[in-house]
Design brief:
Order of helices and strands: HHHH
Distance between the termini: 62 Å
Shape: elongated
Number of strands: 0
Radius of gyration: 24 Å
Mean pLDDT: 76
Strand content: under 5%
Helix content: 55-70%
Number of helices: 4
Oligomer: single chain
Largest sheet: none
Structural class: mainly alpha
Length: about 60
């Protein structure tokens, strides 16, 4: 008993997801897919940390 309300809510949420039109930022999506102008600031740090391959043995 009590499954009716839960199923009705799930159906309502599923319909909202199916028929809603989300606001998509196509410019941001294009930049992400093209791989341009995205610089990860952590890349430089990771390279500096492992520049001396033997440093991990001394730590």
């Amino acid at each position: 008993m009590g499954r009716g309300r839960a199923k009705a809510k799930q159906t309502k949420v599923a319909r909202e997801l199916k028929y809603s039109t989300p606001n998509t930022d196509f410019d941001s999506l294009q930049r992400e897919l093209s791989g341009g102008d995205s610089v990860d600031p952590n890349d430089e740090i990771a390279d500096d940390r492992w520049s001396d391959e033997e440093s991990w043995r001394r730590a």
